[in-house]
Design goal:
2 domains; ten-stranded mixed beta sheet; 438 residues; alpha/beta
Length: 438
């Protein structure tokens, strides 16, 4: 049901929840009700909330939003938008979701043994999956995650069976489009069973509509013993679009998770919440992020790496480049519990401010309760190297090209980790396009 009454979004959501999900199983209904009670208790976060101290979300929720997309774009328009996210020379399966729903006409759904891929709505009443939807997500402290858990209708479900190596990566293209202001809440569940290997690329794109779209998405990623999961997220949303992404990763014994997150210019708001829980021994996580903000854009990266067991490794490196009057936030926490002896954890956040009006709030954190660990964290904020700029200019290189070369060098130790090469080249091209007129 789509509300046409201009009431506050909070009241609108309360009304909508009462008429939603009549086909849910009893266990899913209980999960939703618990989550919605948690959301009602918290409401939308304000800057009084420590996790939202530097990101005032209220201005991005003032419009009157529809809660369900009514009319979709024609197939040719969607094709042209999807093509902008295509990665040249990458042999992959392409999956297209429009406002969180699988668009089969534009998707290359793999028909291979060992890989299940289908809409989440098709399996949402499978009680065996429900504990994954709440795994390590503290809905009583995460209002947007609580709201999504309570009110998601669809998304994507991927399961890699035990011992399967999926040779070709899956490229999921998330298209968000609407001729009216829209509040949409996709939910995704990815499970890598024991000793499986999988690579996933996610691209976020938009049509050129002028409407405001607020996306509140949650992704649960489960890695069983010895599983390996490579995960690259490229957000190239346009003006008027606001994104709240909660990615919750749970890792079992000897699993490996690699995350590469790229937030590009134009979207009004990008908030990436990345929580990784190392639940057993010998697990390993690598988190790399690059964010570039222009105009009045706000990009906020919040991460938590939770070391619960001994002999685990985590590595996190995020870099940001800020132009104009843009703002960025980095809040990263390494949490080492009492039992997590011999933990090796590293965290670093580096930023370049290319305008006197740009702002960065950086808060790297360590919270350690074990005594036999190697942990470090740090933060830097600076400007482009003037000596390097002068050197390049003295060699006949224009200022614009010289600045571009220095920015490429700054981002190199993020991009060098991205594999295979066509993905890295694709990201470099997107960055160059978005910064062409800065």
């Amino acid at each position: 049901m789509t509300s046409q009454i201009a009431i506050s979004l909070y009241d609108q959501l309360v009304d909508e929840f009462e008429n939603l999900n009549a086909d849910d199983s009893d266990s899913l209904s209980l999960l939703r009700q618990t989550a919605f009670n948690a959301f009602k208790k918290q409401g939308f976060p304000s800057i009084k909330n420590e996790d939202w101290k530097y990101t005032n979300v209220v201005p991005f929720l003032k419009e009157n939003f529809e809660l369900e997309s009514v009319e979709g774009e024609d197939i040719e328009t969607l094709k042209s938008v999807v093509d902008t996210a295509s990665i040249r020379f990458l042999d992959c399966y392409r999956i297209v979701l429009v406002n969180g729903k699988l668009e089969e006409n534009l998707s290359d759904i793999p028909q291979i043994k060992g890989l299940k891929l289908q809409p989440l709505s098709a399996v949402k009443n499978d009680a065996r999956l429900h504990h994954y939807l709440e795994r390590n997500i503290e809905v009583e402290k995460k209002p947007f995650a609580a709201l999504n858990t309570a009110m998601f209708t669809d998304g994507l479900f991927i399961e890699i069976e035990r011992g399967k190596f999926i040779e070709k990566p899956v490229h999921v293209v998330h298209v968000f489009t609407s001729d009216k202001n829209l509040f949409v809440q996709p939910r995704h569940l990815f499970i890598a069973r024991e000793n499986s290997t999988f690579s996933l690329i996610e691209s976020v794109v938009n049509t050129d509509d002028a409407s405001a779209i607020f996306i509140n998405s949650v992704t649960n990623i489960i890695l069983e013993q010895d599983a390996q999961f490579d995960h690259c997220v490229i957000n190239s949303g346009k003006k008027g679009k606001r994104y709240i992404h909660q990615t919750q990763v749970s890792q079992a014994f000897q699993s490996l998770y690699n995350n590469y997150n790229f937030s590009l210019p134009q979207a009004d708001l990008i908030r990436n919440n990345l929580n990784v829980v190392l639940e057993d021994k010998h697990t390993e996580s690598h988190l790399y992020g690059l964010y570039l903000s222009t105009g009045n854009q706000l990009i906020d990266n919040h991460s938590l790496v939770d070391h619960r067991m001994p002999e685990c490794n985590s590595n996190e490196l995020y870099k940001g480049v800020l132009f104009d009057s843009s703002k960025a936030v980095f809040s990263g926490k390494i949490f080492v519990r009492v039992d997590a002896q011999k933990t090796n954890a590293f965290q670093q956040n580096n930023n370049l401010l290319l305008s006197d009006r740009a702002t960065i709030d950086s808060k790297p954190q360590l919270e350690i309760f074990a005594d036999d660990v190697k942990c470090s964290h740090g933060c830097t904020v600076g400007r482009l190297n003037e000596e390097g700029l002068f050197y390049l200019r003295s060699r006949g290189i224009s200022e614009k090209v010289a600045r571009s070369l220095l920015l490429q060098a700054f981002a190199a130790d993020i991009l060098e980790h991205v594999k295979p090469e066509p993905i890295r080249i694709h990201i470099e091209r997107l960055i160059a396009e978005r910064l062409e007129f800065v």
